[in-house]
Design brief:
Elements: H1 3-28, H2 40-44, H3 47-56, E1 61-64, E2 67-71, E3 76-80
Antiparallel strand pairs: 1-2, 2-3
Length: 88
């Protein structure tokens, strides 16, 4: 297991307790979550990279101070270039 995998495993272990608490609260109001998908899944499978690549191609995307601003009539979305770093 490399450093990246070890870090992900530690994060998953830490938030497992948080999710248990969330589920207990949701159960009280009769809401049940079938499955949680860790955000790291989308980084590992390159989904995040693909979305960022596609966003950069649209006319409303501009780089500013290391961030990419995607402007639209409703709001501004800031996407850090951090997600473009290669996975170790």
């Amino acid at each position: 297991m490399n450093g990246y995998s070890k870090t992900i495993a530690l994060v998953h272990k830490a938030y497992k307790l948080v999710l248990e608490g969330i589920n207990e609260s949701l159960d009280r109001i009769n809401i049940h979550i079938d499955k949680y998908v860790p955000e790291s899944t989308f980084v590992k499978d390159k989904s995040v990279e693909k979305v960022i690549s596609n966003l950069k191609k649209i006319q409303y995307c501009h780089e500013e101070d290391g961030f990419f601003n995607v402007q639209n009539p409703l709001n501004v979305i800031l996407i850090s270039s951090l997600y473009e770093l290669p996975l170790i």
